[in-house]
């Protein structure tokens, strides 16, 4: 649906959204890194609420109770769906929050105003439909939200009550903050797909534009829901999808966010977008994956391609892009030119991309060369196996063999299938998937833990280990040098994992000295205090921080006696004497130029 008064570009939409909520007493805060800090449950920031969880749980935010920002996000759960009209790996999320301030009434009225007022998006109110939580045996229906929508002008016939699968925001783990949400949809004008067609239907008639989450319950370990003392509002509006809707485009690929990239790819491949469904799908995948990779590499905590964690996802994105380039006839030189276009498109909004341009392009070129070598080795190995494969009367390549090619040589199963089909063979894809899932389960080493404030939980032991990372960080800088910067951490009640920049393996003597320094500070029983100050004041005070990253104007600075001062969101113990004895169990490489320490706290 087109809106005559609405913003036509992402820049206009970002500016309009921030201005709307600024005028309603929200403080504009910067978006955070794509690489979550201290979070063992997710590889990337998937929504604007991730960096704010400590404050949604009740910790005071230095900028107050009303916040608004634009957050860059990566979602990897639907990588295989990218290429269709709606799924993206990288996207920008507009969000506004109330941390125990306003609730349903004001949130819904502001949403309606922003969507329909001619001063803002100017959508026709008659095209809006909304959904609310229908209720179940555990939590009652959200009749309050329905009544508010009706009072602002949405008739009852366009207010839909849907079940938990559609209109409930639950905790990532078994317990935690949760609540109903209300979603806003625009009628695109398409014919209904049948009498059951309603918002949430996949036929394309209804386009979801916004989501307001009302966090009003805390799910307990016994499965019951207790009302939260601090009720929060958490919202989300996708920049790319909203602009596509406002301009009447069928997909986000027809907008400014992808057109320059696609034009470059058309020129390089000689394949026009829209030539065929297969070509269009490949061009979409390549453009999406290159963009996401640029943002991962260009992040202040950016990672390099590897076989673990975020680096594995990055490698998977790049190799999938290269594979689709091969399908379009490109054997090399695919990645860097479109990547340069992405950097140019976003350099004003995300200057870190321009600052890390040389690194981004070098890593892309290196990974492309490396993968093409991998393909050659895999193809050679396949040719060696081929005579025996052709003797197989079933003409099916066993799944375990396809997985071995993938696991040992990095050979994508899709390419194994392509080569197999050329020789009249097929691949046991189900067997491959079973082998792959078994490998994943072994790699995960246990079930995923619940998400609480960026840590595995908020237990006393996790809090102790989090405090210990401050001592470890400072001790590493004392022993190895000021080039040491935190590059991520993963903290559970059992241990801490701390990644830091350092070009070489630590010696046993260096490890012993770091341990000694940390334990000395614990024995001194230093007080832990916190102050709220400006970024400039934090710098001037000597606080350690990733100042290449975007922080709020006001930040929390935790000081540990006369030893450590660091910008952080918490939680922490009150004195270091509570920590016990610190012991480093392992020091190893994490990725190029990044080392990793695993450590524990033991009883003294």
What does this structure look like?
The protein is of the alpha+beta class. The protein folds into 4 domains: 10-254, Bira Bifunctional Protein, Domain 2 (BirA Bifunctional Protein, domain 2); 259-391, no CATH class; 397-448, no CATH class; 460-602, Threonyl-tRNA Synthetase, Chain A, domain 2, CATH 3.30.980. 39% of the residues lie in helices and 21% in strands. It has 18 helices and 18 strands. It has helices spanning 10-22, 53-56, 104-116, 143-152, 164-167, 239-246, 259-269, 277-298, 309-327, 336-346, 351-355, 357-390, 399-409, 413-422, 429-444, 460-480, 508-523, 535-540; strands at residues 27-28, 66-74, 90-99, 128-133, 159-162, 168-169, 176-187, 206-219, 225-238, 396-397, 426-427, 486-491, 496-501, 528-534, 554-560, 564-567, 581-591, 594-602. A hairpin with a 5-residue loop joins strand 8 (206-219) and strand 9. It is globular and about 70 Å long.
């Amino acid at each position: 649906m087109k809106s005559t008064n609405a913003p036509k570009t992402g820049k206009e939409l970002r500016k309009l959204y921030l201005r709307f909520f600024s005028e309603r007493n929200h403080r504009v805060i910067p978006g955070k890194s794509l690489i979550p800090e201290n979070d063992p449950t997710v590889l990337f920031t998937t929504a604007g609420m991730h960096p704010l969880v400590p404050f949604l749980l009740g910790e005071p935010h230095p900028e107050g109770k009303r916040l608004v920002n634009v957050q860059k996000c990566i979602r990897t759960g639907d990588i295989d769906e990218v290429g269709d009209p709606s799924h993206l790996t990288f996207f920008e999320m507009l969000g506004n929050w109330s941390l125990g301030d306003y609730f349903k009434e004001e949130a819904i009225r502001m949403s309606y105003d922003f969507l329909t007022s001619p001063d803002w998006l100017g959508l026709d109110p008659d095209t809006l439909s909304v959904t609310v939580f229908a209720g179940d045996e555990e939590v009652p229906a959200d009749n309050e939200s329905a009544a508010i929508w009706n009072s602002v002008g949405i008739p009852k016939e366009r207010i839909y009550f849907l079940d938990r699968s559609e209109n409930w925001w639950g905790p990532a783990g078994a317990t935690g903050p949760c609540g109903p949400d209300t979603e806003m949809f625009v009628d695109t004008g398409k014919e209904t797909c049948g009498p059951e067609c309603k918002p949430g239907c996949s036929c394309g008639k209804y386009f979801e534009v916004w989501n307001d989450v009302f966090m009003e319950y805390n799910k307990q370990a016994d499965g019951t829901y207790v009302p939260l003392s601090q009720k929060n509002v958490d919202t989300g509006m996708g920049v790319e999808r909203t602009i596509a809707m406002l301009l009447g485009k069928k997909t986000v690929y027809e907008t400014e966010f992808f057109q320059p990239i696609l034009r470059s790819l058309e020129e390089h491949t000689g394949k026009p977008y829209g030539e065929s469904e297969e070509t269009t799908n490949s061009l979409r995948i390549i453009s999406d994956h290159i963009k996401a990779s640029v943002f991962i590499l260009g992040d202040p905590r950016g990672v390099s391609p590897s076989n673990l964690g975020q680096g594995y996802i990055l490698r998977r994105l790049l190799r999938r892009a290269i594979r689709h380039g091969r399908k379009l006839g490109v054997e090399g030189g695919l990645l860097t030119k479109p990547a340069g276009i992405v950097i140019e498109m976003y350099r004003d909004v995300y200057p870190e991309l321009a600052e890390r341009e040389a690194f981004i392009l070098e890593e892309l070129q290196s990974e492309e060369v490396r993968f093409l070598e991998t393909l050659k080795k895999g193809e050679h190995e396949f040719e060696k196996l081929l005579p025996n494969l052709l003797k197989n009367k079933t003409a099916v390549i066993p799944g375990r063999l396809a997985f071995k090619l993938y696991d040992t040589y990095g050979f994508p199963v899709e390419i194994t299938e392509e080569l197999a089909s050329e020789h009249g063979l097929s691949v046991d894809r189900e067997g491959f998937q079973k082998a792959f899932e078994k490998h994943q389960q072994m790699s995960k080493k246990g079930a995923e833990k619940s998400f609480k404030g960026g840590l595995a939980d908020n237990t006393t032991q996790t809090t102790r280990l989090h405090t210990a990372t401050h001592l470890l960080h400072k001790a590493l800088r004392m022993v190895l040098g000021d080039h040491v910067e935190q590059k991520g951490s993963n903290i559970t009640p059992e241990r801490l994992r701390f990644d830091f920049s350092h070009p070489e393996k630590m010696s046993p003597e260096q490890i012993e000295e770091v341990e000694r320094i940390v334990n000395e500070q614990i024995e001194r029983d230093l007080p832990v205090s916190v102050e709220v100050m400006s970024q400039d004041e934090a710098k001037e005070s000597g606080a350690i921080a990733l100042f290449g990253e975007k922080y709020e104007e006001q930040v929390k600075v935790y000081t540990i006696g006369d030893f450590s001062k660091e910008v952080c969101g918490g939680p922490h113990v009150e004195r270091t004497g509570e920590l016990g004895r610190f012991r480093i169990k392992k020091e190893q490489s994490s990725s190029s130029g990044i080392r990793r320490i695993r450590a524990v706290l033991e009883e003294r």
